[in-house]
Amino acid sequence: MDYRFSEKMSSIQSSATVMLAEKARALKDAGEAIIDLTIGEPDFPTPQNIVEAAHAATKKGQTKYTNSRGTPELRKAISKKLDKDQDLKYDPNTEIIVTPGGKQGVMYSILSFINPGDEVICLEPCWVGYESCIQLAGGTYVGVPTVPENGYALDEETLRKKISRNSRMLFINSPCNPTGKVLTNEEIAVIAKVCVEKNLILVSDDIYEKILFDGRRFTSIAGLPGMFERTIILNGFSKAYSMTGWRLAYLAASKNIIDQMNKLQQLSATCPSSVSQAAGLEALSGDQASVETMRQAYEKRRDKVFAGFNNSKISCFKAEGAFYGFLDIRKLNMNSVAASEYLLEKAKIVGVPGSAFGNAGEGFVRISFATSDDSLNRAIEKIKEL
């Protein structure tokens, strides 16, 4: 049969991280001693109090559709969290929507604003999914490069050169996937100034907000002058609470923006999982000790990765947050895809080619240290052998 798929579908690529994670699983199933450092998924179990809250919800019969924006209780808890953590006041009834995962939040943000030809600016290296989501909406992806030589710092002149009359939206992700870079207050101020001057919508992907190292504190750009009404906050439960499979996230923005997003939610998902929302409510309102326990473990692993993946041929940026090591493999004199294949063949380590994270990612390989210490130790020993 001659399948005629849409042009939009042919323009986007499958997720590199998901594909490689599935490849690693297949190799493991075939008996290979693979060290899988691909996917950004905490190896810790979901905290027991969260699991028990979900179980209790099912026993109470809370297994039906909820309000399309999310349960009132969870939206109130999100509003309270944003107020407590960042002194941001969002009306839980009109300015917050709960989504079935962060990727839906990215898509809702883009589809609500981007017309064909509109440009969306992303600081590179950046998460693999931004570009495909932008292309699916008919927009144009524009990358702003940053480099490890200056700590992946944002250069205002470079940013301004990438902005044109067609620029409509800018994405930031701090801490950053894949580099682990955390935007400084000075960089955030520059971004805010440019967004106000150029009338850009700002999407702040805060999914790694709770995973910060060396005493760093998170600052929300939405609190800066002129930014509240143009900022979409994207956050969720997958990383901080080890709830990747629960598929639960949220967006906070002005009423006019949330109203548009709710149309997309009603058409595409109806609502998030009722049971997952009960779990999310407990995550925000219950004991937070597990969040800090996991953060401390990631920081120790960060130190292990930074020490273990620095040698004469490979170096690693010292992550300031999140749980990734971005390995500089340029001295190997091969591109990131070839380097990933080399690591797989010679050391049985599966990482993600840096080219998946934009042009600025070429010459690098991302590894995740949201995995066991045993896997990291074996990977470091394999690198030493090479």
Structure commentary:
- By secondary structure, the chain is of the alpha/beta class.
- The chain is 41% helix and 15% strand.
- It contains 13 helices and 13 strands.
- A seven-stranded mixed β-sheet has the order 2-8-7-6-5-3-4, sandwiched between helices.
- Helix 6 (129-136) links the parallel strand 3 and strand 4.
- The longest helix is centred in the last third of the chain and has 20 residues, at 289-308.
- It is globular and about 55 Å long.
- The N and C termini lie far apart (49 Å).
Cα end-to-end separation:
49 Å
H-E string:
HHEHHEHEHEHEHEEEHHHEEHEEEH
Q: How many DSSP E strands?
A: 13
Strand portion: 5-15%
Tell me the helix content: 40-55%
Q: Name the poorly predicted regions.
A: none
Widest β-sheet, arrangement of strands: 2-8-7-6-5-3-4
The main pleated sheet reads as: 7 strands, mixed
The protein's oligomeric status is single chain
Give the helix/strand class: alpha/beta
Tertiary shape: globular
Give the count of helical stretches: 13
What is the average of the pLDDT values? 94
**Rg value:** 21 Å
Characteristics:
single chain, 386 residues, alpha/beta, seven-stranded mixed beta sheet, four-stranded antiparallel beta sheet, 13 strands, 41% helix, globular
Secondary-structure map:
Layout: H1 7-11, H2 16-29, E1 35-36, H3 48-59, H4 72-86, E2 96-99, H5 102-113, E3 119-124, H6 129-136, E4 140-145, H7 156-162, E5 167-173, H8 185-198, E6 201-205, E7 231-236, E8 249-252, H9 255-268, H10 274-285, H11 289-308, E9 315-316, E10 324-328, H12 336-347, E11 349-350, E12 352-353, E13 364-368, H13 373-385
Parallel strand pairs: 1-11, 3-4, 3-5, 5-6, 6-7
Antiparallel strand pairs: 2-8, 7-8, 9-10, 10-13, 12-13
Helix pairs in contact: 3-10, 4-10, 5-6, 5-9, 11-13
